[in-house]
């Protein structure tokens, strides 16, 4: 019989696979699931639904002696890394854990830390977002929105860096519809000069490769804004003209 740690639960374990209902999971160290690993990670449970129903556990099930901490632990699972099957399993487990990882601790660090700690926190969130962690993506979006318009080159480069990361994130986040109003607001508040021109150009280039119906209303609002020079408004019109003739592609 397995011994249990009174303070740890299965949901904190590296080898606990979260099922779609998000209330139960299964232990991937259980040999019974070995023949169905690929199907399970693709959320195709048809070939082993009975087995899953029999073996699934609530999140708050007490951890067993094979517990491996999901975060901040130096414990490791003993796995034969010469086995291609085991390597594939570890990769899929890692991806699924990143996707479902709770980001509460990172959220607190993001809001309270400075310097290198904050930089590391942002990089951790970017990494999780690449693995389709929606909460990490939303935290990064809020952080990006709250950054003031850049006034020096260092700030310009930082905004461009984050923007590049966003463009590489999964399309499942509907990132374009989220980013477009943020970027429009950036254009409305930023001061156009030699320092910021490359950032403005990157925003407009992004708009040029969006579908016309996605950016039309936003660009029309910019054209009505008396703040912008005739030269910049000309560039806005060029965006709309390009959208009408360009084939839409996603980053």
Walkthrough of the structure:
The chain has helices at 37-41, 49-55, 84-100, 104-112, 115-130, 134-146, 153-168, 175-189, 197-208, 212-224, 230-245, and strands spanning 5-9, 16-18, 24-27, 57-58, 62-63. By secondary structure, the protein is mostly helical. α5 crosses α6 (134-146), α8 (175-189) runs parallel beside α10 and α10 (212-224) runs antiparallel to α11.
Task: Summarize the entry for a quick read.
This protein is 55% helix and 6% strand.
The total count of strands amounts to: 5
Which structural category fits the helices and strands?
mainly alpha
Report the C-alpha radius of gyration, rounded. 23 Å
| Unreliably modeled segments | 1-5, 71-81, 246-251
- Report the major sheet: 3 strands, antiparallel
Shape: elongated
The helical percent reads 55-70%
In spatial order, strands of the major sheet run 2-3-4
Secondary-structure element sequence? Answer: EEEHHEEHHHHHHHHH
Query: Number of helix segments?
Result: 11
Oligomer: single chain
Number of domains: 3
Mean pLDDT: 79
Distance between the termini: 52 Å
Beta fraction: 5-15%
């Amino acid at each position: 019989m397995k011994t249990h740690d009174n303070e740890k639960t299965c949901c904190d374990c590296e080898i606990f696979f979260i099922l779609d209902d998000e209330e139960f999971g299964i232990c991937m160290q259980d040999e019974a699931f070995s023949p169905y690993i690929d199907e399970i990670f693709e959320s195709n449970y048809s070939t082993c639904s009975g087995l899953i129903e029999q073996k699934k556990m609530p999140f708050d099930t007490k951890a067993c002696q094979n517990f491996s901490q999901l975060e901040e632990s130096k414990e490791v699972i003993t796995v034969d890394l010469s086995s291609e099957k085991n390597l594939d399993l570890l990769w899929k487990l890692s991806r699924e854990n990143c996707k479902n990882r709770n980001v509460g601790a990172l959220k607190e660090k993001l809001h309270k830390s400075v310097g290198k700690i904050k930089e590391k926190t942002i990089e951790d969130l970017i990494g999780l977002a690449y693995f389709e962690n929606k909460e990490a993506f939303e935290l990064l979006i809020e952080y990006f929105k709250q950054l003031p318009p850049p006034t020096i080159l260092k700030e310009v480069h930082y905004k461009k860096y984050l923007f590049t990361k966003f463009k590489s994130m999964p399309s499942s986040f509907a990132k374009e519809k989220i980013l477009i109003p943020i970027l429009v607001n950036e254009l409305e508040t930023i001061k156009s000069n030699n320092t910021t021109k490359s950032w403005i150009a990157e925003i407009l280039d992004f708009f040029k490769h969006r579908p016309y119906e996605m950016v039309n209303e936003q660009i029309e609002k910019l054209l009505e804004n008396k703040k912008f020079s005739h030269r910049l408004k000309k560039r806005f019109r060029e965006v709309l003209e390009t959208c009408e003739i360009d084939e839409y592609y996603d980053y």
